[in-house]
Write a structure and sequence with these properties.
alpha+beta, Heat Shock Protein 90, Rossmann fold, nine-stranded mixed β-sheet, six-stranded mixed β-sheet, elongated, binds adenosine-5'-diphosphate
């Protein structure tokens, strides 16, 4: 019976055949990579399951061609698939057996979304008019045949294969004027594709009695013999990323602990990066054998974006997951990797600013969170990797650069939704006038990071939207103080009309009539962030309505207080709403405010 692909698979199939992979050659790499995974799975099982016995040297991938039918045949003697697995793994694109395997191994449901997007196998339809997969699972007595011509669906029937493993026959599409599909059965093409894309595969890829690949994993090769293309191919193959990595770190150590590591920093944020689905970790190999696909313990959380592999001789092959965490060598390797990656990032920051900015755009929030997380335990490791926007430089700077270039004793900052909004806010104006540099914070995590840092190299942070920030000299402070004392009763009654903890005159504004400042631990920005979180908790910053003592509004208010208290209430409410709007906060009663404004302007 012919079955239809699940409908979403059909759409994806079209999409993929026609657009995702513009480079048709890669289908072979995908199939070889699946075959290699199947051999890994079988080998891994043999280490942990006494009933499965295999000899590593027998494991291989074979290629052959059928000239008459124009068919390319790829077979492996790996774990194979039973009927249900064929159905589940090849019947629908979104489902992927590697994913299920990973889940089973890790006993948890976190996975890389792109990785689970099993389009690999389907890329073979780019070059094939028909695909036949015969497979026998290590756990089943029977073999099954999956057959499909792509568009119209697939069928599954019983087969005759005796040994475990999978044989995939690709019936190549007919040649067209533009594309010679029959190239894919030429010796030359097959050999060059294998050396180009699959050389590091750790099992022999045999074609006409010849092993085509060197089998030396990339990380074990001599660095001087590896090209950027080799690294990029390895990366995109293993991490399903169509963009080349921003940075490759190929490193090794000997001594207390011996290992080789090949690490990558992606050039963009993975789709699921800032979700709980994302799983950090590096693949762990013991002497070339995969022990664990994503070993979390090799990376600190703040470097969760790093991808790559670690190969060490210092752990045994059949070590259990629980033991692994306790293993001294894993802890040592993790510490080394932490230091190494941060050093590389610092270097990139110094030598290659543009790329660092690109990195920071993708993963900056992760580093900032790293400073805040764990009660600021890691802040000293990360503080010099942070970039923030400087109002004077109009560009991103480090804390160090801010201090060196501004020559200031304190680090001023202001937060808001966008650079523009902060730049136009009333509190910023007088600082600009005095040519003082301010860091503009627009990321939700920024203020939390600042509060975790507390200070930077002895320099205090000052939020210019907080009451304690002031630029005035003692004399003008006295003037303001007097003014506030004289009008104490009026300010007190104004406070009664609105929801603030204080109303007062200020000398710190230039042209703007009012602003809202905060006092205490929670700033107005933090109020917004915390309240936007999906928890029941709501907080309120203690806010102060500050009125510009040099603005004509001052006299107007005093006049109203003496002659018309009812009007004073309206004015106060409007001024308060103005101040909230400037801060990017909501006003609770917009219709009341708009009729108050109308009242006043129609007089
Ligand atoms: P992915 O490799 O991204 O998981 P694929 O579409 O390439 O997606 O493959 C889907 C699934 O089919 C794999 O995860 C694997 O479980 C199974 N599979 C593919 N090829 C083989 C093979 N040669 N041997 C055993 N299982 C295979």
């Amino acid at each position: 019976m012919k079955k239809q692909f699940k409908s979403e698979s059909k759409r994806l199939l079209d999409l993929m055949i026609n657009s995702i992979y513009t480079n048709k050659d890669i289908f072979l790499r995908e199939l070889i990579s699946n075959a290699s995974d199947a051999l890994d799975k079988l080998y891994y099982e043999s280490l942990t399951n006494k009933d499965v016995s295999v000899k590593k040297k027998d494991l291989k991938i074979s290629l052959s061609v059928n000239d008459t039918n124009k068919a390319l045949i790829i077979s492996d003697n790996g774990c194979g698939m039973d009927e249900t697995e064929l159905e589940n793994n090849l019947g629908t694109i979104a489902k992927s057996g590697s994913l299920a395997f990973k889940e089973m191994m890790d006993k948890k449901k976190n996975v890389d979304i792109i990785g689970q997007f099993g389009v690999g196998f389907y890329s073979a339809f780019m070059v094939s008019k028909k695909i036949v997969v015969e497979s026998k699972s290590i756990h089943s007595d029977k073999s099954y045949i999956w057959e499909s011509d792509g568009a119209s669906g697939y069928s599954i029937s019983e087969g005759t294969k005796k040994d475990n493993g999978t044989t995939i026959t690709l019936y190549l599409k007919d040649d067209t004027e533009d594309i010679t599909y029959s190239d894919y059965i030429s010796d030359y093409k097959i050999k060059s594709l294998i050396t180009k894309y699959s050389d590091y595969i750790r099992y022999p890829i045999v074609f006409k009695d010849e092993t085509l690949n060197s089998m030396i994993p990339l990380w074990k090769k001599d660095k001087s013999k590896i090209t950027d293309t080799d690294y990029n191919n390895f990366y995109s193959d293993k991490y399903y990323d169509y963009e080349a990595p921003l940075k490759v770190i190929h490193t090794s150590a000997e001594g207390m602990v011996s290992y080789k590591a090949l690490l990558f920093i992606p050039s963009h944020t993975p789709m699921d990066y800032y979700t709980k689905e994302y799983e950090k970790g590096l693949s762990l190999y013991s002497n070339g054998v995969l022990i664990m696909d994503t070993c979390k313990d090799l990376l600190p959380d703040y470097l969760a974006f790093v991808k790559g592999v670690v190969d060490t001789e210092d752990i045994s092959l059949n070590i259990s997951r629980e033991m692994l965490q306790q293993t001294k060598s894993i802890q040592l390797i993790s510490k080394n990797i932490d230091t190494k990656v941060r050093k590389e990032l610092e270097e990139m920051l110094k030598e290659d600013r543009d790329n660092y900015k690109k990195f920071f755009e993708a993963f900056g929030p992760q580093l900032k969170f790293g400073i805040y997380n764990n009660f600021g335990m890691d802040k000293d490791k990360l503080k010099d990797l942070i970039l923030l926007y400087s109002s004077k430089k109009k560009d991103l700077v480090t804390f160090k650069e801010y201090i060196e270039e501004s020559g200031q004793d304190v680090i001023y900052y202001a937060s808001g939704e966008t650079i523009d909004k902060i730049d136009n806010s009333p509190q910023v104006e007088p600082y600009k006038e005095k040519d003082i540099d301010i860091l503009y914070l627009t990321d939700y995590i920024d203020e939390f990071m600042i509060s975790a840092l507390g200070e930077y190299e002895g320099k205090k942070f000052v939020n210019i939207k907080e009451e304690k920030s002031d630029l005035e000299d003692e004399k003008s402070k006295e003037v303001t103080k007097k003014l506030n004392e004289e009008n104490k009763d009026m300010l007190e009654s104004m406070k009664g009309y609105i929801d603030v903890s204080e109303v007062r005159f200020t000398n710190k504004l230039k042209n703007h009539p009012v602003c809202l400042s905060s006092k205490g631990d929670i700033s107005l920005e933090m109020e917004k962030v915390i309240n936007a979180m999906p928890t029941d908790e709501t907080v309120k910053a203690e806010s102060i309505l500050e009125i510009n003592e040099n603005h004509p509004i001052k006299d107007k208010l005093i006049e109203l207080y003496n002659n018309n208290k009812e009007e004073l209430e309206k004015y106060t409410k409007i001024l308060y709403s103005e101040a909230r709007l400037i801060e990017g906060l909501q006003i609770d009663n917009p219709s009341e405010i708009s009729s108050l404004i109308c009242d006043i302007i129609s007089k």
